[in-house]
Design brief:
Layout: H1 2-71, E1 76-77, E2 83-88, E3 100-109, E4 114-117, H2 118-121, E5 124-127, H3 135-141, E6 149-154, E7 175-184
Length: about 180
């Protein structure tokens, strides 16, 4: 009787261990499947976000092209998407990194909404590579010299991006600057 009890007990123990192992294996397998699904979902979400962002940028690019065509500006388009039209060439010192620049400006949104200008805010005073200005404005300034007057169109990704600036510039805003370079030190 005692041997049969041990045999049954051993059998129950083996069965219990087997079930525990199977449950642990199944659980790990489920965790792995869930992790794979989460990774795949993140990848799909990322790809979807990239696709939507590209579509938004294409629409924005079309709007900028229509704006430029309406005014018949012979703009230069850089690889980043910046558009610049130098309508009065200056003969002064060119702008380079680490110089101080003073510029008169008028800033509008693509729809014509006035944001600010030198008359209300004073001239723009910046030190290239030290002052935080929009990426696109920095790029444009490096193409200018003292005396230049230019129209500069910054796509949203070169301006304040998806968030805007929290004050007057809304999210995903295209900015149109009319700039005159007054001094470079």
């Amino acid at each position: 009787m005692r041997n049969s009890f041990i045999t049954v007990s051993d059998s129950i123990l083996k069965l219990s261990l087997s079930l525990t192992f199977l449950l642990a294996f199944w659980s790990c397998n489920q965790d792995t499947k869930e992790k794979v699904m989460r990774v795949e979902n993140r990848k799909e979400q990322r790809e979807s976000a990239i696709k939507i962002n590209r579509q938004v940028l294409e629409i924005e690019d079309q709007q900028i092209n229509q704006y430029v065509a309406r005014y018949n500006w012979p703009v230069v388009r850089t690889g980043s998407g910046l558009r610049i039209y130098i309508y009065k060439k200056g003969s002064g010192k060119p702008i380079s990194n680490k110089v101080e620049v003073e510029a008169a400006y008028d800033l509008k949104l693509l729809d014509g909404t006035k944001i600010e200008n030198s008359n209300s805010e004073g001239n723009m005073q910046i030190t290239m590579d030290k002052t935080t200005i929009e990426t696109g404005l920095h790029e444009a300034f490096l193409m200018l010299r003292v005396g230049d007057k230019a129209k500069i169109i910054l796509p949203s990704h070169l301006a304040f991006g998806v968030t805007g600036n929290g004050r007057r510039i809304p999210p995903r805003a295209v900015l149109v600057y009319d700039i005159e370079i007054l001094k470079v030190n």
